[in-house]
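Re: that chain you flagged

S.,

Sorry for the slow reply, it's been a week of failed gels. I finally had a moment to sit down with the sequence you sent. For the record, here it is as I used it:
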Amino acid sequence: RSLRDLVAVHPVGLAGLGIGMTGRLSADGVDAQRLTTPWSGRSPARDLAPHFGVPAAIENDADAAALAEHR
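Prediction finished late last night. Pasting the structure tokens below so you have them in one place:
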């Protein structure tokens, strides 16, 4: 199922998107490492937020996991 399908059937709705991505990200969340993928030079968070109408954030996956463990 796609994320859009899951959001449509969830009774609470979507409050925001959190994206964990491997590799290096620039300060504004642009994929700085994958030069051959569709996200090259783009920010998944900035691109996906308007489609779902909620705030979105992106972080390196290891950093996000460390933050989650800390909390």
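What I noticed first: The beta strands are 17-21, 56-60.

Talk soon,
D.
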